């Protein structure tokens, strides 16, 4: 029997773990993450660069990083009437709030015709529905703290066919934790019917831990419990292999210099023609990536902290270090 399958069977038998055991295997807790890593390595003055997706988009474009094209923005309620002019020559697009979180307020349109605007689940919307959604974004319905917001319209990502069967309706993305420019841990988030087609683990998406050395699956979870098959498609999740892995790692590691943040999460999608594309940055990445990988972050973070020459290392050298020390095969 495949070793990954055996490990999965063992995981099913041990869903509950004593806190002392978690500490022994180096699981990073929220308080330690906030104090020892986020507060220490992320200057607060830089938070707006990632908390505001429009500012993120601006620094990404300035740095020449591969990312979805910006079609337009709507900042005031009186501009909602301009939405049709913004999207009329675009086959597919995504509307999202600049200050949203957890996938809230993201509306993806896969195409349009005489009947209206089509979503991935087959639902057809009218222009009035899109305008109402934009108006709700501006009113702060989806933003942190309910403050007024900005609507961002981006080009639709054409996700790579290699992920067929691994996701339900939505676009899968890869979260990479980058510490001081070193990619230390990664997972892919796969949408499900429970998550309503969104790659959000708290809403029921599947998290697949990835070997930092080659992008292959090492473990999969849904609702923090191990799973072997995708709940909607039946695809074996341990067969997942992310292509263009070296390019993806280079993109994530380069976000350290671009953002100035020492501890961050990079969300990357794979477009079938443009390759890895940066979707978002997160200055307070969650801890569930440890559950998806079945391994704690702390030993990897401390190994990077122990380096005395980290600042002199190039992106390629940092990636090589991560592959050597953090791969499951190392």
CATH homologous superfamily placement of the largest domain: ATP-grasp fold, B domain
Mean pLDDT: 91
User: Quick one: overall form?
Assistant: globular
Report the β-strand fraction as a percent range.
15-25%
Which structural class best describes the helix and strand composition?
A: alpha+beta
**Count, helices:** 11
Number of strand segments: 14
- The CATH class designation of the largest domain is Alpha Beta
| Fraction of residues in H or I helices | 25-40%
Q: How many domain units? A: 2
- What integer value in Å does the Rg equal? 20 Å
- What is the CATH topology assignment of the largest domain? D-amino Acid Aminotransferase, Chain A, domain 1
Sequence of secondary-structure elements? HHHHHEHEEEEEHEEEEEEHEEHHH
Query: What is the first-to-last residue Cα distance?
Result: 22 Å
Biggest pleated sheet: 7 strands, antiparallel
Sequence of strands across the biggest β-sheet: 12-11-10-9-8-13-14
Gist?
It is built from 11 helices and 14 strands. It is an alpha+beta fold.
List the helices and strands and how they pair.
Blueprint: H1 3-13, H2 19-24, H3 30-41, H4 47-51, H5 53-63, E1 70-74, H6 83-87, E2 93-97, E3 107-109, E4 111-113, E5 116-118, E6 124-125, H7 127-138, E7 151-155, E8 173-179, E9 182-190, E10 206-210, E11 217-222, E12 225-226, H8 245-259, E13 263-271, E14 275-282, H9 289-293, H10 298-305, H11 315-326
Antiparallel strand pairs: 1-7, 2-3, 2-7, 4-5, 5-6, 8-9, 8-13, 9-10, 10-11, 11-12, 13-14
Helix pairs in contact: 8-11
Primary descriptors:
RimK-rel_E_lig_ATP-grasp; ATP binding; seven-stranded antiparallel beta sheet; 330 residues; nucleotide-binding; four-stranded antiparallel beta sheet; Alpha-L-glutamate ligase-related protein; alpha+beta; D-amino Acid Aminotransferase, Chain A, domain 1
């Amino acid at each position: 029997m495949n070793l990954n399958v055996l490990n999965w069977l063992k995981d099913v038998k041990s869903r509950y773990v004593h806190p002392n055991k978690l500490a022994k295997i180096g699981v990073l807790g929220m308080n330690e993450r906030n104090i020892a890593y986020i507060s220490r390595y992320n200057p607060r003055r830089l938070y707006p660069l990632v908390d505001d997706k429009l500012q993120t988009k601006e620094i990404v474009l300035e740095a020449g990083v591969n990312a979805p094209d910006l079609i337009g923005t709507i900042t005031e309620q009186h501009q909602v009437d301009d939405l049709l002019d913004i999207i009329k020559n675009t086959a597919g697009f995504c509307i999202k709030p600049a200050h949203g979180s957890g996938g809230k307020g993201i509306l993806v349109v896969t195409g349009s015709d005489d009947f209206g605007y089509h979503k991935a689940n087959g639902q057809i919307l009218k222009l009035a529905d899109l305008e109402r959604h934009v108006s709700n974004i501006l009113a702060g319905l989806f933003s942190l703290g309910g403050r007024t917001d900005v609507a961002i319209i981006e080009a639709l990502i054409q996700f790579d066919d290699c992920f067929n069967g691994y996701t339900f309706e939505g676009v899968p993305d890869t979260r990479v934790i980058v510490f001081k420019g070193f990619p230390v841990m990664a997972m892919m988030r796969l949408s499900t019917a429970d998550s309503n087609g969104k790659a959000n683990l708290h809403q029921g998406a599947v998290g697949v831990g990835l070997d930092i050395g080659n992008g292959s699956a090492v473990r999969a979870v849904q609702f923090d419990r191990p799973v072997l098959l995708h709940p909607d498609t039946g695809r074996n999740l341990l067969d997942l292999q992310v292509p263009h892995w070296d390019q993806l790692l280079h993109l994530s590691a380069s976000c350290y210099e671009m953002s100035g943040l020492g501890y961050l999460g990079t969300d990357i999608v794979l477009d079938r023609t443009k390759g890895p594309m940066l979707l978002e940055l997160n200055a307070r990445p969650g801890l569930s990536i440890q559950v998806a990988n079945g391994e704690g972050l702390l030993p990897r973070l401390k190994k990077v902290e122990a380096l005395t020459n980290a600042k002199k290392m190039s992106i390629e050298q940092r990636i090589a270090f991560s592959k050597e020390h953090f791969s499951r095969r190392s």
